[in-house]
Design a protein that fits this description.
alpha+beta; 27 strands; about 15% helix
Length: about 425
């Protein structure tokens, strides 16, 4: 009895030491993770209708106003040059720092009741990671951020514009007014976005101890200089006189595309590089018809003898999910399949594993479809959000560079503890 009691006491002491050490890691290394000032904002995926008419989209939860904040759920749009907010009565009434700057029509300029179509200015609140263990994530204001009052479509409370517009996009304004925030932003769908220049990203996980009721924070870091990098193409449209700021789009250059299935590897051998636009509003990656057909046919060849099923729109290549989704049992089914690779300018390679290209349509979950789609003849190629999820993309606008790293690792023992949801 004495031995078991002593062992139990020793076990409790060891667990307590683990907790203390983990807390001190958070205290000491949390500061280093944001040595170059960086602010973050929560991102949330809305909807789960894969393969349906209302596909999922992503919103940023942006608190606006002072002293009271109204949290607006704004659709994350990498192409939009401006932020559009539904200036509701609640927002106007709660914020003492909201100012009307200018309006596009005479009725709004004269009215005191409506701000529709007006450009306004207010404070927004973002999160800063600090070394204080009791409250490591601290909301801080960024003042004098401009946005336009409107509906911004039917998704959420408006639109958060993340384009390369020099002055009107949300990252540009945070960089200008955030005191020490560089012209760089990043996001990791579906969970978080950053403004600024972190040299180190931090992942925090609450870990349960199997032999007791204790939980501790496991802190891991990965440095941005270990990311892959490729030139970032910024496609800017010329602004018309007295017109709104036009869309600016981000793209990367793809030099080759390949599919590897076991001992077989197929390569597309592109005759010339293609531009691949990056989107946060399009769910699935789309390729111009001739490129898509060649890439899809390589994928079908790599899959081998698996019998195809009838297509489920918008997909044209589908199989029985049981063929691919039994890797880790029924509790956490993950698919297996060939690795898809996009060779980019500068020697970087974007790889897509089976969990990021097999789609199980909501209407027919027993089917697994190839999650790339035909964009149509002579249409632009677009990297969709389904293939971006759980990868950290860092847009260095000043240096025209895209850095990226996969956060989700399906082939590790911690596969269920990886992903963007653990980033802070």
């Amino acid at each position: 009895m004495r031995n078991s009691s002593a062992q139990g006491s020793l076990l409790c002491i060891l667990v307590a030491l683990v907790v203390i050490i983990s807390i001190n890691i958070l205290r000491l290394e949390g500061v280093d993770a944001r040595s170059n000032k960086t602010l973050s904002i929560k991102v949330e995926k809305v909807g789960t209708d894969y393969g349906g008419s209302t596909p999922p989209f992503y919103v940023v939860n942006l608190p606006i106003g002072s002293p009271n904040q109204t949290t607006m759920r704004l659709k994350l749009d990498l192409d939009s040059p401006e932020t559009i907010v539904n200036c509701s009565n609640e927002l106007v009434a709660s914020s003492l720092t909201l100012h009307k700057l200018k309006c596009r029509d005479k009725r709004s300029r004269k009215s005191k009741k409506t701000l529709e179509g007006c450009e306004v200015e207010d404070s927004v609140w973002l999160n800063e990671l600090r070394g204080n263990v009791s409250d490591p994530i601290v909301p801080v204001p960024v003042r004098k951020v401009n946005f336009r009052c409107g509906t911004g479509g039917n998704a959420g409370d408006g639109v958060a514009g993340f384009s390369a517009a020099d002055s009107s996009s949300l990252p540009a304004q945070v960089s200008k007014n955030g005191r020490g925030i560089g012209k760089r932003f990043s996001y990791c769908l579906p969970s978080i976005a950053y403004f600024g220049s972190p040299d180190v990203y931090t992942k925090a996980q609450l870990i349960s101890i199997s032999f007791g009721a204790f939980r501790y924070v496991q802190i891991t870091h990965f440095q941005s200089n270990q990311f892959q990098r490729t030139p970032l193409i910024i496609k800017k449209k010329k602004k018309k006189k007295n017109g709104p700021e036009p869309e600016h789009r981000y793209a990367i250059s793809v030099h080759n595309m390949s599919v590897g299935g076991g001992s077989w590897v197929g390569s597309l051998n592109l005759s010339k590089p293609i531009e691949l636009f990056i989107s946060t509003t399009q769910l699935y990656t789309s390729l111009e018809t001739s490129t898509y057909v060649a890439f899809r046919d390589m994928f079908r060849h790599a899959i081998g003898p698996a019998p195809p099923l009838d297509p489920v729109a918008p997909f044209d290549t589908c199989y029985s999910a049981n063929t691919f989704f039994d890797r880790y049992g029924t509790q956490h089914p993950l698919p297996v399949g060939p690795i898809l690779s996009l060779d980019l300018a500068g020697g970087a390679t974007w790889t897509v594993s089976a969990p990021k290209y097999f789609v199980r349509p909501s209407s027919q979950p027993g089917i697994a479809c190839f999650g790339f789609v035909d964009a149509g003849p002579d249409k632009p190629n677009v990297l969709g959000t389904f293939q971006q999820e759980d990868s950290l993309l860092e847009f260095d606008v000043a240096r025209s560079t895209l850095a990226f790293r996969r956060i989700y690792e399906p082939d590790t023992s911690e596969r269920f503890l990886t992903g963007c949801r653990h980033l802070v």
